[in-house]
């Protein structure tokens, strides 16, 4: 906009030219709009931190809003209740990933032993080594007290997760790379190391006495998958 003396009044046409238009291509959106669009993600990040640190029951929505730097009223604009907020955290960090993992499984061309190793590596990289692993520990500790959340977690996380593991086992059996077995039981042999690490890292690992041998998660998972494969390979 051109500088004009203070005594000059802009015409109506000039006024229209000086009004910011966030929809005009090439112009930056107002800071307020950018901030508003970022709020749901900031609230989910704050909620994940607090749910993992304090558990579901002890976390208050006021604390989540304060950590995200907004008011409680603003939080309720996006998430009407604490239960809705928790479900959104689970979908953002865990449940929303299964479509991606299914596509990766469909496209995998290696043998089934390599696929099982890949399963553990991907889980550790995207869930196990992140704060999202604390959601599993939270559900182990609080599922009985919040049956509606337990049912939600069962539908959104456990059922699609076990379905993917079942596909890996059935693939190996069908190709003759794994021995015939009850896949419904084998699923939990595969999941058990993941569950252990999720609980351990978010509980006892933080208070392990000095001098005790620390668990290396990657070494632990490598050992577990090799033991599983020894049991899965066809017998002579």
From TrEMBL:
State where composition is biased (Basic residues): 28-38
Q: Locations of Polar residues compositional bias?
A: 8-18
Pfam families of this UniProt entry?
TetR_C_11 (PF16859), TetR_N (PF00440)
Q: Which residues bind DNA?
A: 60-79
| Lineage top rank: taxon | Bacteria
Locate the region Disordered: 1-38
| Domain HTH tetR-type as annotated: residue spans | 37-97
Entry keyword set: DNA-binding, Transcription, Transcription regulation
Which PANTHER family does the record cross-reference, listed alphabetically? HTH-TYPE TRANSCRIPTIONAL REGULATOR BETI, HTH-TYPE TRANSCRIPTIONAL REGULATOR RUTR
Protein name in UniProt: TetR/AcrR family transcriptional regulator
């Amino acid at each position: 906009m051109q500088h004009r003396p203070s005594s000059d009044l802009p015409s109506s046409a000039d006024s229209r030219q000086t009004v910011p238009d966030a929809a005009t291509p090439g112009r930056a959106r107002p800071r307020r709009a950018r901030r508003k669009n970022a709020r749901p993600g900031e609230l989910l990040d704050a909620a994940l931190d607090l749910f993992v640190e304090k558990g579901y029951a002890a976390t208050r929505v006021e604390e989540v809003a304060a950590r995200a730097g907004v008011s409680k009223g603003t939080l309720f604009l996006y998430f009407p209740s604490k239960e809705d907020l928790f479900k959104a955290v689970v979908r953002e960090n865990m449940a929303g990933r299964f479509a991606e993992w299914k596509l990766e499984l469909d496209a995998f061309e290696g043998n089934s032993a390599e696929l099982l190793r890949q399963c553990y590596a991907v889980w550790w990289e995207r869930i196990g080594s992140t704060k999202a692993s604390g959601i599993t520990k939270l559900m182990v500790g609080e599922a009985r007290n919040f049956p509606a959340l337990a049912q939600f977690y069962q539908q959104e996380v456990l059922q699609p997760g076990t379905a993917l593991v079942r596909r890996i086992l059935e693939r190996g059996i069908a190709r003759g790379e794994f021995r015939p077995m009850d896949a419904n039981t084998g699923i939990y042999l595969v999941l058990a190391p993941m569950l252990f690490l999720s609980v351990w890292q978010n509980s006892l690992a933080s208070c392990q006495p000095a001098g005790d041998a620390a668990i290396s998660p990657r070494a632990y998972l490598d050992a577990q998958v090799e033991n599983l494969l020894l049991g899965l390979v066809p017998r002579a």
